[in-house]
Specification:
about 120 residues, alpha+beta, 2 helices
């Protein structure tokens, strides 16, 4: 009876993993000179991308998943004039349930506007 209960508990459980991409691997780089306060912070913006894998097959690569999240973030920002996004970070979250894996990338950034 005990092995059946253990097997049932394993079948009904799932695991989750989260990690932060700390390297600056995006190609959206802006050179900013902050010798004086020539900008103001408008707010924050985020974007998401998710993908499902069955038996480890299907979906986007980790790089493509992160780039899709960044694309969604830029679309959500609705930048105008002298606005830019700084401090861009991408975090990844994975959910495992036996033969299924759900992956999600979340990109966040700070919107600033140059006043000079």
């Amino acid at each position: 009876m005990l092995p059946c209960a253990v097997c049932l508990a394993l079948l009904c459980s799932s695991c989750g993993v989260s990690r932060q991409a700390t390297g600056n691997t995006n190609i959206t780089q802006t050179e900013v000179v902050l010798a004086k306060k020539n900008y103001r912070v408008i707010g924050t913006v985020s974007g998401e991308s998710s993908q499902n894998y069955w038996f480890g097959i299907g979906g986007l690569s980790k790089k493509s998943l992160g780039e899709s999240a960044m694309s969604d973030m830029y679309k959500n920002a609705n930048l105008t004039g002298a606005q830019a996004i700084i401090n861009v970070n991408v975090s990844y979250k994975n959910k495992f349930i036996l033969i299924y894996t759900g992956a999600k990338a979340i990109a966040t950034g700070t919107i600033i506007e140059y006043t000079d």
